[in-house]
Write a structure and sequence with these properties.
The protein is mostly beta strands. It is about 5% helix and about 35% strand. The protein is built from 4 helices and 26 strands. A 6-stranded antiparallel β-sheet has the order 4-7-8-17-10-13, with no helix packed on it. The longest helix has 10 residues. About 35% of the residues are buried. About 15% of the residues have low confidence.
Amino acid sequence: MAGSITVSSITLDSDNNFSIKSNTGATLFFANTSGVDIANSIGATAITSDKILSIANTKISGNIISSQITSIGGSQITANTIANSAIQTGAVESYLRAVNLDFGLRNRIINGDMRTDQRNAGTSVTVNSTGQTYPVDRFFGTGQSSDGVFTLQQSSTVPAGFAKSVVATVTTADASIGASQNYLFRQRIEGYNIADLNWGSADARPVTLSFWVRSSLTGTFGGTLHNSAGDRFYPYSYTISTANTWEQKTITLAGDTTGTWLTTDGIGLNVIWSLGTGSTLLAPSSAWTATTYTGFTGQTNLIGTLNATFYITGVQLEEGLQATPFEYRHYTTELALCQRYYYSSGTGNQTYTTMGNGWEYSSTAAQVYCPLPVPMRVTPTSVSYNALQLNDSLGSNPSVSSLTVSTVECSTIAGKVNIVITGGNAGAVCMLRASNSTSGYIAFNAEL
């Protein structure tokens, strides 16, 4: 034990409760103290391993300052230890935050609290195809090109502690889903962000998926986790007990010891919530399988009920057998994580905001480089834009007719675009900027 401590008293009471106190008033040792509340004897004294040597069968409650707890006897505090103790949930949450146990990316989900929406600024999007439709960053919906239709939108209807959620609303019901049809809400996690889980090996680590959910429907709901190859699936189920009420759900699963799990910049893991799944894609149990499943047998299909709603937020996927408090990251950090996959210069800018610089190599064509705020996952695969023009060194303002990502000289840190223009000047240097409109933007896509 580091340093020295002066003992001021040693006490053995009639119940064989034994304690030693220092001259500072700190209680140093407890034994045979089952059921005794020691909170008052601790007071505001810092609790460290050199001041508490042993606590056996002792109830700790009251106002213990979480920032003062650094360790207890050198023992690791595990989720099971906390779950089976008399420490209240709020105290555990404060403790986890106070001692900063987040030594990295605990939550593998990006934008799990649905705050970041670069594409839509909160407006609704319609899911009526099998393509990826994003209501907020990193999360997207897929559906059918006919039959059922649902919308997705960032929402301010939230449980305590959150500011945003995503709501799915059925606008065209599909009460008889085709056997192989799907209506899904999902996120793809990059391989780099699950590499330490060691899936596909004997050392595969377990994970826990947790989220807050609210629906106008009750019953059993389903989803799945699967790899990029689509040959390893873990279907799961959860129950919504009360309509239009926020409930937190937790699903824990063993890591997959077989299959191929990418650990590079490709799709490492798909996380899916089913809003409607056909009969051949429904699983009878929760276990790793090579069979394609996207839902759970007997699940409630939201898409089958017109105007049905499904809200979700606080999504977290983490290593381990217990769900920990949601990992709140600074907004700028979360935005940067999103911008690795999609970057938009943003609408609502000042008019004539500059997006990039380049040159006009003819009166009808120009090339411009747009700096990217963070390295993107890969070279951008597509670009979208609105209300843009050029301003060149000869004083002209050529209009933009079309704009595409260049197939050469584009990188993960600078997006090069080829632009078809009207009224340009060959050889002039130029700026790409918003026109006389606050809705001007350019966006680069490198999604999984």
